[in-house]
Amino acid sequence: MPEVTIHIGGRGFDVSCQDGEEPFLQAAAKLLDDEAQVLSDQIGRMPESRMLLMAGLMLADKAAAHEDRLKLAEAKLVEAEAELNRLRSQPLPEPERIEVAVVPPSVTDTLAEMAARAEALAAVIEERKA
To answer: Which parts form a coiled-coil structure per UniProt (predicted)?
Structure first.
């Protein structure tokens, strides 16, 4: 079982941990040391046990705040998932009917006749130009 020296509040502590947990222990010690440094800057020197207690309480307060935020986020996620499921289970809306006017065949015939006359006139004009 490896032994790691961690530094908190300017003091060294030898702590044992499981193999491979050294980085996690160092990270946790840094969090505790950061809180101890805040206390030291605000209050000055204090007994080791009081400094560790106060730093631990400050970290616990932060952890509780994060836990509250996590629970709130999880509750919002549950609500959003419920709303999504509700929307997915609703029947699709009826398709909107759009009616398009049908062009009567007589109009089509008349337009074709007009196009033929226009082409004939264009041919006559081309002949006269030439």
So the answer is: 63-90
**Does the structure show a pLDDT above 80 at 130?**
no
Count of residues in the chain: 130
Whole-structure pTM value: 0.55
Give 109's strand partners: none
DSSP-derived 3-state class of residue 91? coil
- Residues 6 or more apart whose CB falls under 8 angstroms from that of 25 comprise 4, 6, 15, 17
CA contacts within 13 A on the Cβ side of 26: 8
Rounded to 10 degrees, the C-alpha dihedral 120/122/124/130 comes to -150
The dihedral region occupied by 17, where left means phi > 0, alpha psi between -120 and 50, and beta the remainder, is beta
Cβ count within 10 A of residue 66: 10
Distance, CA of 81 to CA of 46 (rounded, Å): 50
- How far apart (Å, rounded) are the C-alpha atoms in residues 125 and 127? 5
Cβ–Cβ < 8 Å for 58, 35 = yes
Q: Residue 93 corresponds to which tokens in the numbers above? A: 């809306």
